[in-house]
């Protein structure tokens, strides 16, 4: 370990100690997992450096604060199954072992998605699209192999990710074009077959928006009516400071709860930077040109914005807590601001502040605010 890493790791330990002392004085819980222990598990998406023990500072935060983990990238098709017949399980195995070692609720992300899936999946040797039966077989083999390997160990899988367009219609992905609409039902059936105990989630962004929410509600209703084992809906939660409003978040959770599924907040982060587009989206293919106006806090976040972020986080956790009978997990998409994908999406190279720990691993005002909401929930 370099001197610098050792110093920052030391600072993180010191910060953790200070939080403990301050919280003990105020009789507040010191960790997210403790603060919400009567409500839901609190998770973080973790990256390969954290899984393999190369980010000691990150690991210290994960172990102290969270009781659930999601794999940010290592279980996506392009990483776990990069070539036909070639699976790469080394890091995923370490991911699952990490979660078990710390008695965490372990999430698998994700089985069927249009992004981070290699082109060969949909093509034959000549480069043409394969037929429906061939693609169904490939999907089946993939799910059987990956879910089967971690049967009873990964408790919850994001089975289908982002199948909907903004207007609520089904996205014309290669899955949809080649197999047809029932690719979704098939994916859930295959996952259930591979691990009948696992929770199975439909995961998407912007489900707060009216049209997309309607499409998702109709989709889940159809799946449930056909006896497809979908147990939960994941609201990704890549949100902004301004919206969606807490009322909208509240209504969205209620709407899905009425269908008899659990709700998870699967990828929470809150962007404080100027929006790079008009729509509220988390479409990974979106790319916006760099522009200094879109990166106003490159040298630090003003205290006023820090406070706004804390309030926004507190308000949202208030809604999640209110729905603790249906919300079973809230997962942040990353550990510290330095890790967040938001630094590079939709604009490359911005300095973003969307999480609860800052770039040096220190808890932000938003962390304290979230803890306080959890402490109040506990004593209600
Ligand atoms: C993101 C990762 O955080 C990035 O590291 C990667 O480059 C792209 O994908 N919706 C999802 C997640 O379901 O898998 C995405 O994760 C963010 C949007």
Q: Could you write a compact summary of the structure shown?
A:
The chain is an alpha/beta fold and 380 residues long.
What features would you describe in this structure?
The protein is α/β, with parallel strands linked by helices and 380 residues long. Helix content is 41%, strand content 14%. The protein is built from 13 helices and nine strands. It has an eight-stranded parallel barrel, surrounded by five helices. Helix 11 (246-257) links the parallel strand 7 and strand 8 (262-271). The longest helix is centred in the first third of the chain and has 24 residues, at 3-26. The mean pLDDT is 94. The structure holds (3S,4R)-3-hydroxy-2-oxopiperidin-4-yl beta-D-xylopyranoside.
Largest pleated sheet: 8 strands, parallel, barrel
Number-wise, the strands total 9
CATH class: Alpha Beta
- Which geometry do the CA atoms define? globular
User: Ranges with pLDDT <50 over ≥5 residues?
Assistant: none
Architecture (CATH level 2) name: Alpha-Beta Barrel
| Total domain modules | 1
Strand content: 5-15%
> What structural class do you assign from the helix and strand content?
alpha/beta
Describe the strand arrangement of the main beta sheet, using strand numbers. 1-2-3-4-5-6-8-9
Sequence-ordered SSE layout with sheet pairings:
Blueprint: H1 3-26, H2 32-35, E1 41-46, H3 48-51, H4 56-65, E2 68-71, H5 77-80, H6 90-101, E3 105-112, H7 132-149, E4 156-161, H8 174-179, H9 183-194, E5 199-204, H10 210-225, E6 232-235, E7 238-240, H11 246-257, E8 262-271, H12 303-322, E9 327-332, H13 365-379
Parallel strand pairs: 1-2, 1-9, 2-3, 3-4, 4-5, 5-6, 6-8, 7-8, 8-9
Helix pairs in contact: 1-4, 7-9, 11-12, 12-13
Bound molecules: (3S,4R)-3-hydroxy-2-oxopiperidin-4-yl beta-D-xylopyranoside.
Residues 72-73, 161, 236, 267, 282, 284, 341 line the site of (3S,4R)-3-hydroxy-2-oxopiperidin-4-yl beta-D-xylopyranoside.
């Amino acid at each position: 370990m370099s001197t610098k890493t050792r110093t920052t790791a030391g600072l993180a330990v010191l910060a953790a100690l200070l939080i403990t002392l301050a919280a003990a004085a105020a009789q507040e819980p010191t960790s997210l997992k403790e603060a919400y222990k009567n409500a839901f598990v609190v998770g973080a998406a973790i990256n390969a450096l954290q899984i393999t023990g190369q980010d000691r500072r990150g690991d210290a935060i994960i172990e102290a604060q969270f009781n659930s983990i999601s794999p940010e990238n290592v279980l996506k098709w392009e990483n776990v199954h990069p070539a036909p017949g070639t699976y790469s399980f080394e890091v995923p195995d370490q991911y699952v072992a990490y979660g078990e070692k710390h008695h965490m609720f372990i999430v698998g992300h994700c089985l069927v998605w249009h992004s981070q899936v290699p082109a060969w999946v949909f093509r034959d040797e000549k480069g043409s699209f394969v037929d429906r039966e061939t693609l169904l077989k490939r999907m089946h083999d993939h799910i059987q192999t990956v879910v089967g390997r971690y049967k009873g160990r990964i408790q919850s899988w994001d089975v289908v990710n982002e199948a909907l367009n903004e207007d609520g219609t089904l996205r014309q992905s290669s899955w949809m074009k080649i197999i047809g609409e029932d690719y979704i039902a098939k994916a859930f059936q295959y996952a259930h077959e591979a691990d009948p105990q696992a929770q199975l989630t439909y995961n998407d962004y912007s489900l707060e928006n009216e049209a997309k929410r309607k499409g998702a509600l109709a989709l889940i209703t159809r799946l449930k009516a056909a006896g497809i084992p979908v147990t939960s809906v994941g609201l990704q939660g890549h949100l902004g400071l301004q919206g969606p409003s807490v009322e909208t978040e509240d209504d969205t959770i209620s709407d899905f709860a009425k269908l008899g599924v659990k709700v998870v907040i699967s990828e929470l982060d809150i962007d404080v930077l100027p929006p790079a587009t008009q729509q509220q989206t988390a479409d990974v293919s979106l790319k916006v040109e760099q522009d200094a106006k879109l990166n106003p806090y490159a040298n630090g976040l003003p205290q006023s914005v820090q406070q706004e972020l804390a309030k926004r986080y507190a308000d949202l956790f208030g809604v999640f807590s209110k729905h603790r009978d249906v919300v079973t997990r809230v997962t942040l998409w990353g550990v510290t601001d330095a890790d967040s994908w938001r630094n590079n999406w939709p604009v490359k190279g911005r300095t973003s502040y969307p999480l609860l720990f800052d770039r040096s691993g220190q808890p932000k005002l938003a962390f304290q605010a979230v803890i306080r909401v959890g402490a109040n929930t506990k004593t209600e």
